[in-house]
Amino acid sequence: MRTAFCVAAAASLLSPVPALAQQAEAPPTTASVLAAAGADDWVVLPQEDLFYLFLDAGPVVFEVARAFAPAHLDNIDKLTEAGYFDGLAIVRSQDNYVVQWGDPAAGSAAARAFGDARQRLAPEFFRARSGLAFTPIDSRDAYADEVGFVDGFPVGSDGERAWLAHCYGMLGAGRANEADSGSGAELYVVTGHAPRHLDRNVTLLGRAVHGIERLSALPRGTGELGFYEIEAEQTPVLKMRFGNELPVTERIRLERLRTDTPTFESLVEARRNRVEDWFADPAGRIGLCNVPVPVRTIGE
Amino acid sequence: MRTAFCVAAAASLLSPVPALAQQAEAPPTTASVLAAAGADDWVVLPQEDLFYLFLDAGPVVFEVARAFAPAHLDNIDKLTEAGYFDGLAIVRSQDNYVVQWGDPAAGSAAARAFGDARQRLAPEFFRARSGLAFTPIDSRDAYADEVGFVDGFPVGSDGERAWLAHCYGMLGAGRANEADSGSGAELYVVTGHAPRHLDRNVTLLGRAVHGIERLSALPRGTGELGFYEIEAEQTPVLKMRFGNELPVTERIRLERLRTDTPTFESLVEARRNRVEDWFADPAGRIGLCNVPVPVRTIGE
Asked: What is the dihedral of CA A159, A162, A166, A169, to 10 degrees?
């Protein structure tokens, strides 16, 4: 009777159930939408767009958003190729906020060299909305006039500009007070309620698509802002690589539901109007960060 | 230089900084609002309204919402007095969703007896809005026509009804498909992005005010819905008690910022318009679950 006292599932859509015999009139559920999805509704994520963080516990994989942060990702390409991240550490876990990793010696004489990479980059806090395949969703968003998805990423817009939104699992480039003080050498991932007040204030560049629990369940740091107070509490970063830099045996093959299809629109509606038996009073409404974009391992 | 690459702090308001010399014209910040708060802006939380979950790692403390879930809390009073929870276990941790505890044998012949407590309760999914000291906040909420705070709790309303909102840290009573199948014997706490689609679908009854990291950083369960697959993965619940049932030495004295004061309104505005140096483009907007209600230990 383990399931007798559940609150309704959020993540079960990540493991789509087999197709069910459905009545033509049955309103869609997350499970039925995914069961009915065809091969064209999914996109295989190219290894060059997957950024792997290797920990003792295993890899965390991020899909990167080159349309939003090309300069930061180019810099990270250079840092990664030079092995900059290898042997660094997770330095911070702040409850209901972020996990952050980078060079514990950053800013001191012992800091790692950047090699060909740049130490400061112009901010990529937003870009033009035009030129994006933007799929809006009907949602009364607290922080943006318009919200929706671009290539699987949650996005806000004011009509002219578009920006990645700080939903759970989003990957960003830490910075100091100056807007151009980020470089991609210090990274964070959102591990709590979406801190949307950070939108347009920091460069986001990707989203966790595999293994985020290896970050989100880390012990919280007890120092200010969740920094670990002693070095032994830090989690070592074994290495960071883009997938195309990895031996084939270390790659994880993933596909993601496309967000520019009628299937995705049906998924959003199924999330808006939950018709599963458990729901007594379906919301009829949906928030941007409550639309999880399904990702699955190929061949499992 | 640990702080050189921070994303801005969310939790620092839990440790108010000493009062700063301020210009009269300086717009408020979270720190300045809390520094200027007087004794009347805080309320000492009565021990009979604090519900303690004791783990090997230490206590997690919840403030309970008797105005919203009186029947469930009365039932939990009975269960707690009878020692029902003592020796049970945390059975589930689902990433970006909930942590849940109760009787691993629930529903089987080995299930614990409820004694004088009830096995099923009428739902307390919402109540009348009238009769509440409701402090609305100006926010375009995705899930409710109106949102605000009542006695420190985040609340949604449609004008007639009011309900507790599933923000991070909220405590609820799990149930099966039938609306009256909850009892308070199986409890969950929100440990991810606010699952607001659960609002009005399950009885919420409190909010974590101390030690939530002892739940949110637990390893995620690898079974369906985040249930632990083997008993050894479960975390023992040593005991659960209301504060007035505890020896004084085990009590934690807490005070919470009142949410029906001009000080709280200033805090909301400071969160809406972040004027700290770090912010390049303050949102000018605020979401209900992004207003943390400060709680502090008395005498520290």
From this structure: 130
Tens digit of each residue's pLDDT (9 = 90 or more) over B99-127? 999 999 998 999 999 999 999 999 999 99
pLDDT band for A25, please (50, 70, 90 cuts): low
B98 to chain A, any CB pair closer than 8 A? The answer is: yes
Compare all CA atoms of chain B with the CA of A167 and give the residue at the minimum distance.
B193
* B239-265 core/surface letters (b: 16 or more CB in 10 A; e: else): bbbbbebbeeeebbebbbbbbbbebbe
Distance of CA A148 to the CA centre of its chain: 15
Q: Is the predicted ipTM greater than 0.85, yes or no?
A: yes
Residues 218-237 of B with CB under 8 A from A: 218-220, 223-227
pTM of the complete model: 0.93
B254 CA to chain A: closest CA distance, Å?
A: 19
pLDDT digits (tens, 9 = 90+) for B133-143: 999 999 999 99
DSSP line for A136-167: EE----SS-SEEEEETTEEEEE-SSEEEE---
Contact A93, A191 (CB under 8 A): yes
Distances (CA, A) of B284 to A178, A293, B29, B265, B274: 20, 28, 13, 14, 8
Confidence check: pLDDT of B23 > 60: no
pLDDT digit string, tens, across residues A57-74: 999 999 999 999 999 999
Which residue in B has a C-alpha nearest to residue A95's C-alpha?
Answer: B213
